[in-house]
Protein 1
Amino acid sequence: MKQRTSIKIILAVIITIGVFAAINFLGFSAKIKNTFYLASSPIQNFFWQAGNSVSTFFNTIFKVNTLRERYENLLLENQKLLAEIATLKEYEKENIALRDALQIGLEKDYEIAFARIAGKDTAGESIVIDKGAKDGLSKDMAVITPQKSLVGRISGVFDNFSRVQLISSTKSSFDAKIQDKNITGVLKGEGNQRIFIDLLPVDAEIKEGDVVVTNALGGIFPAGILIGRITSIRKTDTKPFQQANVMPFFDLKDADGLFVITSLQ
Amino acid sequence: MKKTLLLILGFYLLILFQISFLPFFSIFGTVPNLVLLSAILVNVFEKPDRKSGIVAAGFAGLFLDIFSANPIGLFTTILIVLALAIKMLVKKQFDLQINPFSQNG
């Protein structure tokens, strides 16, 4: 009797392992996940909007003291940027004139598709967006915010949804550079929305506040997309390279819609 | 049966809450895994001879697999095994309390 029960248990375990292996290796896993995401999206949207509203409410209450300081800093930065825009507009005019003279067309940088965040992965290293293979998305496409800050790249595609591996994921590693300086490094994720830039030359002059952007050398992301700002530098005499902590521009709590770069022009 | 279905529905709503509401309240980028915690607590506080906790834990694991990058079956298996282990421990503790002088306890 006991032997029959043991055989039944072993058989049940083997069948269960077989079913799970079939689901994962025969492609049913993607279809099952897509169906669940599709069915759950109304409830997820409700929770996401509710979370956003409640979070904004409490943030306003708890951060009211820092709001004035942040407002004044933003005013100063705004004035500085307006001055830069004025200079850049002059360069733009010159650029257009030169292109006309050389007969080179002004093309868009890349084609984009809009997507909304449906949820965040339980491990916190990826998010799910509401566009998938049926919308023309494929693996490894870059995802950015409307402000052109890098979010991550598509790591998995279902029919109607896609999984985006965040740049702060521990599996994330790609070429980056310090804006306006010829200093390149490797941007790595540390999990928990933390990133740092590694393999910077030890004699490179970098400082807090420097902006980090993508470098096209790695072939993963288009060049020039904003990543974050350096907050502190890690330098030791024993290592041949220096590292720097980076505060990403992208914040999940502020993100509403995202753009997927579907093709580069 | 009714209790099992309610537990499964509860876990389903909880996973959606965990991935869509709680990320806005993360601490150092981390969100507590309420589904895992609840599956454990259900089995701890349920009577050892009841099976609904084990079935519900299996579904909780399935939902964790579906709404993550894990292959389907990973957390399902983990939570079923965990639920069985908890039941065994609770049963052992329960037997000890009834008859602390039992040779088997």
Protein 2
Amino acid sequence: MQALPGEEKITLRVNGVERTGRAEPRMTLADFLRDRLDLTGTHLGCEHGVCGACTVLLDGRSVRSCLMLAVQARGHDIATVEGLAAADGTLHPVQEAFSEEHGLQCGFCTPGFLMSVVELLEEDPDPSDDDIRIWLSGNLCRCTGYHNIVAAVRNAASRMRTQCPDAGRGDLG
Amino acid sequence: MKPPPFDYRAPETLAEAVALVAEFGEDGKLLAGGQSLIPVLALRLASPRVLIDLNGVAELEYERLEGDRLVIGAMSRQRSVRKLPGLARRCAAIAEGIDLIGHVAIRNRGTVGGSVAHADPAAEWPALLLVLDGEIDVAGPRGTRTVAAPAFFESFFTTVLAPDEIVTEVRVTIPGGRSGSTFLELARRHGDFAIAGAVAAVTLSERDGTIADARVGLIGVAPTAVRATSTEEALRGARPTGAAIADAAALVGGHIDPASDIHGSADYRRQAARVLTRRALTRATERAAGSLEGSAGLAG
């Protein structure tokens, strides 16, 4: 593909698939995912790193994609919300849990929460409510008041401990 | 909310990075973790002509505990330092300080060198460097130098770094013997910038249980992190009683110059500094006392 002046070709792995797009160095990873790769599940809330709506996983670790440049993600593995469900549409346990516990209303913050929760449960499969609230302090929600989000994380933790007691990082690359 | 245009360079070695800062001087801006710089760019508070991205300079990313020294490469992520085995046990103040840095995602990308170079008056690392005999290694076209922490931080977001200098490593000394420490902050929400914060490290005499050494640092109450040396001096040699700690904590006012803003008045910050210092010293002392089996807690 041709790049416009100032733009460069950027290749990275997103949800296990190699993807290529073009961007100026100043384009954030968030904008690159949304505008160049049509992965609009990652949301832009504040665009300066406070709200967590843009959270994705970079090599398994949560990052604010609005605080990374797309060029910095070259050669790395990115996991976005679009990669959580299985190819056949089966929801990820965290998604099931959020649905069951009404852990979302408008859904704008939800992708960021889901990615953060995936990392949390990988790090700590049995977090206390305090652990959950501290871990998710970087994700803001205007709708729910967080109560059902915490319940959803407890629910997800329980599901995942039951389903895959010895699970590692799984299919998020 | 998009960054302005800039040229972008991604060196892979420190030597390349030094050559780039030499080439671009004040036109260049170093990019470390980006957790402070990229918001600045997004808010259009700065428009550097060239961004020099240090994230590919692998030789700057390391962290290790060597005896009583914590040695940290400038590009080491906050999370990586936090995950050093035994860190919390060896020096709770460092572990607790890192846990107070923003949120998980910020600690996954944010770097120690970046925090030090950015010199936010409410940042944790400058205070840790001040109270733990911190040293900062710097590299540039004119060579390398080591700066002791008290000489490094000048004012709000201002250090002695020249535009063509790069922080390469920071080191702190972990108190030994019968020591305890803690880092406390006052903030409205977990992860917010501190309205005020205090870090304290106390070492008790093995011989008679008096305070052999006390270190107190404060954040968010002056243009830089500060050491409350009057408080420290009042405690040296003293029996570790609640009264002694309270009296010493009251002396922090002479070292601070808090601002008034939407998060708190100067008087509120002054009060917060006193209270946090007292609490931090109390907890540090209790931990020091508890660091030997069978030791009593705080007397008086």
